[in-house]
Design a protein that fits this description.
It contains 9 helices and 12 strands. Strands 8-9-10-3-11-12 form a 6-stranded mixed β-sheet, with helices on both faces. The protein has a 4-stranded antiparallel β-sheet with strand order 2-1-4-5, with helices on one face. Strand 6 and strand 7 form a beta hairpin. Helices cover 38% and strands 27% of the residues. Helix 3 packs parallel to helix 5 and helix 5 runs parallel beside helix 6. It is α/β, with parallel strands linked by helices.
Length: 262
């Protein structure tokens, strides 16, 4: 891992009177896997949505490889970038959501190749070659002609991962990618994510899958009430967290996992 690919400074995000993020500072190194945990409503998903500018920050700055996301400096002031520039920046950051958001009227392969053809202007034959390789990578080459309704939830999510990878992003964001799945189907998706991590993909992962965090994360970031409560290697965060609030959260979430048998 080398210098930061993502740098976040003083990130705040409000929706009306409600402040969700309250001054996030964060750096992510190239090839690093950062798992973000914390109680519901603490700002985890909002943070990811700000990182690829689906939500514009109320305050603060985000850089991708040294380029300011969403805005640029002009005569000493920050001004919004044109939408075309923001779209270009977004192509470097893939995102996988809790809900799969596949186009229901398109086959698995068509879902994967749509963005490369429309955004990157790739010829269909080239896009299809990429799409077939990616479906093979996520174990779904044999389902390439199936429509989403004929795929399980786990299969749909793996198609969604292939679709995000088709844009050749430098960073992948996963927002509770397994929370809508039962444990068996969730494991299919986690295995794909594990493979990406082993290949050196830079990843920020919001999840309640503590086993995945222990095994895959280089660093665990604990959010609470819109701030970074603490962060460190999984071995430290799960065994010797410094904050009482972290200990309370982990005790609850690990107890729930034990009770449910997952």
């Amino acid at each position: 891992m080398s210098g930061p690919i993502i740098r976040v400074e003083g990130l705040r995000k409000s929706f009306g009177e409600r402040e969700i993020l309250r001054g996030i500072d964060l750096e992510v190194a190239t090839g690093e896997v950062v798992v973000i945990i914390g109680p519901s409503g603490c700002g985890k998903s909002t943070l990811l949505r700000c990182l690829n500018y689906l939500e514009s920050p109320t305050q603060g700055r985000i850089w991708l490889r040294g380029e300011l996301l969403g805005r640029k400096e002009k005569e000493g002031h920050l001004v919004p970038r044109p939408e075309a520039e923001v779209d270009r920046q977004r192509t470097h950051i893939g995102m996988v959501f809790q809900r799969f958001n596949l186009f229901p009227h398109m086959t698995a392969l068509s879902n994967v190749i749509e963005a490369p053809m429309k955004v990157k202007r790739l010829p269909r034959a080239q896009a299809e070659a990429i799409g077939l390789k990616l479906l093979e990578r996520v174990g779904l080459l044999d389902r390439k002609d199936e429509y989403p309704i004929r795929l399980s939830g786990g299969q749909q999510q793996r198609v969604a991962i292939a679709r995000a990878l088709a844009m050749e992003p430098e960073v992948m964001l996963f927002d509770e990618a397994t929370s809508a799945l039962d444990p068996e189907l969730a494991d299919e998706v986690l295995q794909v994510m594990l493979g990406l991590a082993r290949e050196g993909m830079t990843m920020l992962v919001v999840t309640h899958e503590m086993g995945f965090a222990r095994e895959v994360a280089h660093r665990v970031v604990v959010l609470d009430a819109g701030t970074v409560l603490e962060q460190g290697p999984p071995s430290v965060i799960f065994s010797q967290p410094s904050q009482p609030r972290t200990r309370e959260f982990l005790r609850k979430v690990l107890h729930v996992r034990t009770e449910s048998g997952s």
